[in-house]
Specification:
Keywords: Signal, Transport
Radius of gyration: 20 Å
Oligomer: single chain
Structural class: alpha/beta
Protein name: ABC transporter substrate-binding protein
Main location: other
Order of helices and strands: HHEEEHEEHEHEHHEEHEEEHHHEH
Pfam family, one: Peripla_BP_2
Family: Belongs to the bacterial solute-binding protein 8 family.
CATH architecture of one domain: 3-Layer(aba) Sandwich
Distance between the termini: 70 Å
Length: 424
């Protein structure tokens, strides 16, 4: 029976159209319609259908994903990059209520932990049944707790840090020249994971079928589509195994991280491990350090994602990082450009960049900044901003995994940057 089922899965995978790699675009021009999210909306060929819904985590403006515009255009808003990237981490407020509901369902349904360490695999999974109401309002029911789980890279990395190892992953998994993965992949060890796709728009359905998957987990930004599953392959993917959607947007990073810790526990991870406790302590310490700097520095901070033809400025209240940092007393500047209430980014012309001359520090989208530095230096209104001239431009990790380990590093780095920065 199992062999027959496996052959049926494999046949379904073979019939599915193989993904065609897309040529990465660098901030291509586009209309306002695509420039709203960091990580929201349905994964389409050029942009997501519903770019800015909910509190982004910056849907991330952060990675150059083929066929997508600036992070603001990405279906996942703050996880999406307005101009050419799909997260990252990013992530909006309208969806936050749904995120709370999902987190609550995880806590109530969570099963007991195991004696394994924080990197334990799915072998520790409770017997089951596994039942979960996801961010699409869909109840996922599996007779036995799944052990063969495949997930989008940021999701996989968050679960990994919480103690659950996925068997397969897809998303932003292309190493750089030095063999290092993007920060969006966190601590994933590709020697232990089957890679189903290495960038946005890639998903090898046949390879996925061969894994005999029991569950697939991805973000959703519109409560309908899975963020990194190509729309053309969605039906095939749904037939091969149950799929579970987690919210793409949250109010704070604390809430987001706890959601993944709870889900990892439900899948069998030891969420009381020393490693997880240590990561949580480092996370809390980093936030205290930021709070200490905020109390005495008087620094004004702006969060941005520069595009080719426009400047995208983050609305702090629309991203988990923004709300978390504001709670520590950091003075985050509001975006002044035109935008809808649900947008994570306000799109402004480069002529309007001097509006942010009072920013002592600029946090810039880490997914695209290094590759666009040279071009930005030629934009006078950018180059003449006081923070830029003072060298006080630091990374904003828009699509990082929601884990204590990941954000402990991010916030510790930010605390150090803020300590070194001066009031201009």
């Amino acid at each position: 029976m199992r062999a027959a089922a496996h052959r049926a899965r494999l046949d379904a995978g073979r019939r599915a159209a193989r993904p065609q790699p897309r040529r990465p675009l660098r901030h291509p021009p586009g209309g306002d319609e695509g420039r709203r999210d960091r990580r929201r909306g349905r994964a389409g060929r050029g942009h997501h259908a519903h770019p800015h819904r909910g509190r982004l985590r910056a849907s991330l403006p952060g990675h150059r994903r083929p066929g997508i515009r600036h992070p603001a255009d990405h279906p996942a808003s703050h996880r999406q990059h307005p101009e050419g990237i799909p997260p990252v981490k990013l992530r909006s407020t309208r969806v936050a209520g749904l995120a709370v509901a999902v987190a609550a369902s995880l806590i109530l349904a969570a099963c007991g932990g195991s004696d394994t360490d924080s990197s334990s695999s799915s072998s520790a999974a409770p017997a089951g049944p596994f039942e979960f109401k996801d961010a699409r309002g869909k109840t996922v029911t599996i007779e036995k707790t799944p052990t063969t789980v495949v997930a989008q890279s940021s999701v996989a990395a968050a679960l990994w840090d919480a103690g659950f190892q996925v068997k397969g992953a897809y998303g932003e998994l292309t190493p750089d020249a030095g063999g290092k993965l993007s920060f969006q992949a966190g601590n994933l060890d590709l020697k232990k994971v089957d890679v189903i796709g290495k960038t946005y728009g890639e998903f090898d359905t046949e390879k996925y079928a061969l894994l005999d998957p029991q569950l697939l987990i991805d973000y959703t930004y519109d409560a309908k589509a899975l963020w990194y599953v190509p729309q053309a392959q969605a039906d095939r993917v749904e037939k091969l195994a149950p799929t579970l959607a987690v919210p793409g947007n949250y109010q704070t990073t604390d809430e987001a991280i706890q959601t993944f810790v709870d889900l990892a526990g439900k899948l069998g991870a030891d969420t009381g491990s020393d490693a997880l406790k240590t990561a949580k302590t480092r996370y809390d310490t980093a936030l205290k350090d930021i709070s200490a700097v905020a109390k005495t520095s008087g620094l004004k901070v702006a969060i941005m994602s520069p595009g080719k033809d426009s400047l995208y400025v983050v609305k702090p209240a629309m991203v988990p990082e923004g709300n978390t940092l504001k709670a520590q007393g950091l003075d985050l500047m509001d975006a002044t450009g035109k935008s809808k209430d649900t947008d994570v980014f306000a799109q402004q012309s480069w002529e309007e960049a001097p509006t942010y001359k009072d920013a002592d520090v600029i946090l810039v989208d880490a997914r695209t900044y290094e590759g666009s530095k040279a071009d930005l230096a030629k934009v006078a209104t950018w180059a003449n901003l006081p923070a830029v001239k003072a060298g006080q431009v630091y990374p904003w990790y828009a699509a990082a995994p929601y884990s204590y380990a990941s954000y402990a590093k991010i916030y510790a780095e930010l605390a150090a940057d803020l300590k070194a920065a001066k009031k201009l």
